[in-house]
Structure formats: C-alpha cells, structure tokens
Specification:
Layout lengths: L1 E6 L3 H16 L3 E3 L7 E6 L4 H17 L4 E6 H6 L7 E3 L7 H11 L3 E3 L21 E5 L1 E2 L10 H5 L3 E2 L2 H13 L4 E5 L14 H8 L7 E4 L9 H9 L6 E3 L7 H7 L5 H11 L6 E8 L6 H14 L3 E6 L17 H24 L5 E8 L5 E4 L5 E4 L9 E10 L2 E6 L4
Parallel strand pairs: 1-2, 1-3, 3-4, 4-5, 5-6, 7-10, 10-11, 12-13, 13-14, 17-19
Antiparallel strand pairs: 8-9, 15-16, 15-18, 16-17, 18-19
Length: about 425
C-alpha cells in the first residue's frame, strides 16, 4: 500500500516522521510524495501558533481531496489539543507514534475509528530510534521531549507535556550506529534540549562529553539551547573540541527586559548580553536566534530597546516572528495587544537588520578555509556547511556526496556564499 506523509513544524516532528517512515518501509509499505494519490495519508501536525493550526487543517483537507477513500491518520501537537475537532480514521496525539504500523493494521482489520490521546504529564519518554534519513550527510537524534518553562506565549508544554529524556546509553547507541553507517554530522534535537537529563539523573553536558568521544564521529551539532542553560563545561567543549559545531541557536525572543518578564523568559537583557560575551570568546562562533515582535504591551520604546540589544549582540541571523495569539496561553489574555500592521512593520525592520548582519558575518569570513561535508542537492547545487553553519556553494564537479572537504570562501553575494575546494598536494 502507498503512504503519503506530511510533516509540519519543528525538527522533533521531522525526526518523528522519519521514524514513522522507516517503520512503515520495514513493514512493506511504499512511501510516496504527499501530493500523489495514496492509500494512507499521515499528517504529523504542528500547533505552535494559530497559523500552524490552520496549516494542519489545510493539509488534512488536502489529504482527503487527494483520495476520498484513503485512510487518514492525524497525529502530533494539533491532535493533542484538538482531537474532538478532527475528522480522521486515526487521531493520535504525541504518544504512540512508534506504534503506527499496528494502529494502521488494526484499523484495516476492524474499520473502527481510533482516538488515542494521553495525559502527557503522566507518561515516560517514548523510545524511538532511526537508522536512515533522506539525506546521508546529516542525522537527527531526538534526545528529549516536553517543556517545563511555560513561557506566557507558548502552548508547547500543554501539547508536549513535561521534560522527558532518552536514556543516555540509548542516545550513545543511536549516535554510534549512525556514525558507523556513514553519517558525518549528528544534530541533537528536542523540545527543550538544554534540560536534557534532569529527569533521569544526568545532564546535557555529561551527554556531550561522551558523544564527542565516539570513534569516527566528525561533527556534533546542537539544534537549539536556551542561553541560561549553557554551562561552563559546554562552553569549554565548544571552545576546545573540534567535534562540537561552532554554532548555537539561542532564542532571545525580545531585547527588552520588560517584555522578557511578561514573556516569563527567566532571564533579563543584561544576563543575556553577559552570556553572549562569554560565548564570543570562542573563535569563529556563530550565534543565531528567534525573536518575537509585537508581543502584548510592546511599545515603540520597547521595540527600539530590542533593536539596540540586537545591535550589541550582532547575531549571524535573526528568525523573526510577529506575535501570534495562542488560545490557552497567558499572553492571549493580556491587555494592550499590538495591532497586526504594527507587528508587520516591526518584523520587516528586524528582517532588514538580520539580512545586514548575515551579510556582514559572511563578508568577514572571505579568504578563510573551513572543512565540511559535501551535500549534492536534487537541483544540482553543491553545498558545504561549515562548523559555524555557513552554507558555502561550490562549483567543483570532482566531488562526491558525503565527502569531507576543505573550502576557501571566495565571494559573498547578498546572503549567498561561494567558495572553492582546497586540495592538499
């Protein structure tokens, strides 16, 4: 039977969809593009914003229109909090995705609609493992699920539950196997990655110290981490260990201490700046971030304070989001909601700032030589990602996918970086 899978949202969802894909393939199902006619459609949904909910509903409807007779499986974050409003054959929240094959077979046998939603405050980490990814250069490993932070704008603790961690030995085993199978770069991902291990008597820094010593591992990258969870040991690893990628994605969300407090972000502007100064002692470090503009009560003065903070930090790239009201969160009930046209205007200004910062960072690296893994994309473009996550476009034809090469940055055009391979004698 043919199965079309659509994955929306974060890297954790991508990982879980890859797990589902592998389980189905191993059980004899044929995976086809989601746009094609299939016997089964699986939509792994996102619910981080109201727009995410809309997109999830759109993809559910698209699957039904692709084939009215298909089995429709809706799972993930949107399902977790909206199960009563979803019409599908199988509705699954954020647990038991690893049982996808038996759930489908049970439905095929009994033709009975299934709705499986757990109280995620009372569940353990769902063990998932993967051996193959669509790309053979970068492998994702989910090490953690859930969040205990309860930022005032965020629904994630309610749809993902509390912090739950994969056993350290299971992470080490999965990473080791991926390395043995040829994956050059391993990306550790989770919902609140920096809190890894607090529920099982270990920590992220302890895990990293073991992972960097796995035989033949080339590069280890953190997908995202909160600034107040970067410990001295993690900084030391970033500074002194070549395996650790010299890039961190550290969400700031606002550069105003007043707004950060309303967001319940658990640090102020000064604390963020102090930690950034520590991180910038690491040679070639690249810092990227997430930023919300137009949060309730954000005045023009607060926004200008944010711009001033961003100018002091000089992030390589700023992923900017206009604040989106989310039913069920504290921020949704706050007074002084910012009009949408002002939010759009502020977002545009931050995007302009981000583009200038990104170009400036790339320009500063012209002439430098970095090593990285060759990625030959389907469109024919060949890219090498550096340790500090610069995507260098190369035109050399005598390369093979997944090869480790040294590249000299020769030119920057806007936000595109070009380079040439440097071969030894």
């Amino acid at each position: 039977m043919k199965v079309g899978i659509c994955s929306l949202g974060c890297k954790v969802n991508i990982y879980e969809s890859e797990v589902v894909t592998e389980l189905l393939k191993n059980s004899g199902y044929e995976i086809v593009p989601f746009e094609e006619k299939a016997d089964i459609y699986i939509i792994n949904t996102c619910s981080v914003t109201n727009e995410s909910d809309k997109k999830s509903r759109k993809m559910i409807n698209r699957a039904k229109n692709n084939n009215r007779d298909a089995i429709i499986v809706v799972m993930g974050c949107y399902s977790q909090v909206n199960s009563d409003n979803i019409e599908a054959d199988i509705v699954l929240g954020n647990k038991d995705k690893s049982k996808i094959v038996e759930l489908i077979r049970e439905y095929q046998k009994k033709k009975e609609h299934q709705k499986i939603i757990y109280d995620l405050s009372k569940v353990e980490f769902e063990k998932m493992e993967i051996t193959k990814f669509a790309s053979h250069t970068r492998g994702f490993v989910k090490i953690q699920d859930g969040c205990n932070a309860f930022c005032s704008y965020c629904i994630i603790p309610y749809v993902r539950g509390g912090v739950r961690s994969k056993k350290k030995e299971d992470v080490i085993s999965e990473v080791s196997r991926l390395v043995e199978d040829g994956y050059k770069e391993i990306v550790l991902t989770g919902i609140h990655t920096g809190r890894y291990g607090i529920d099982i008597g270990t920590s992220l820094e302890e895990l990293l110290e073991e992972l960097v010593n796995i035989p033949n591992i080339y590069r280890l990258r953190l997908s995202s981490i909160e600034i107040n969870e970067i410990t001295p040991k993690i900084i030391a690893l970033l500074k002194n260990n070549k395996v650790m990628a010299k890039h961190l994605h550290v969400p700031i969300q606002s550069g105003s201490s007043k707004i950060l407090k309303l967001m319940n972000r658990r640090y102020n502007k000064e604390e963020f700046l102090d930690m950034v100064n520590n991180l910038k002692q690491i040679e070639d470090i690249s810092l990227t971030t997430d930023l919300i503009v137009g949060f309730p009560n954000e005045t023009e003065e607060d926004f200008n304070e944010t711009i001033d903070t961003l100018n002091k930090i000089n992030f390589t790239k700023i992923h900017t989001f206009p604040y989106s009201r989310r039913k069920g969160t504290l921020a949704d009930k706050m007074d002084n909601q910012v009009p949408s046209e002002i939010k759009k205007e502020r977002a545009h200004k931050i995007i302009e700032l981000s583009n200038k910062s990104e170009n400036k960072y790339y320009q500063s690296k012209i002439g430098k030589v970095y090593d990285g893994v060759v990625e030959i994309h389907k469109n024919g473009e060949t890219i090498v990602h550096t340790t500090n996550f610069i995507p260098i476009i190369i035109e050399d034809t005598d390369v093979i996918n997944n090869e480790i090469v040294s590249v000299k940055i020769t030119e920057v055009r806007g936000l595109k970086v070009y380079g040439k391979i440097v071969r030894g004698d």
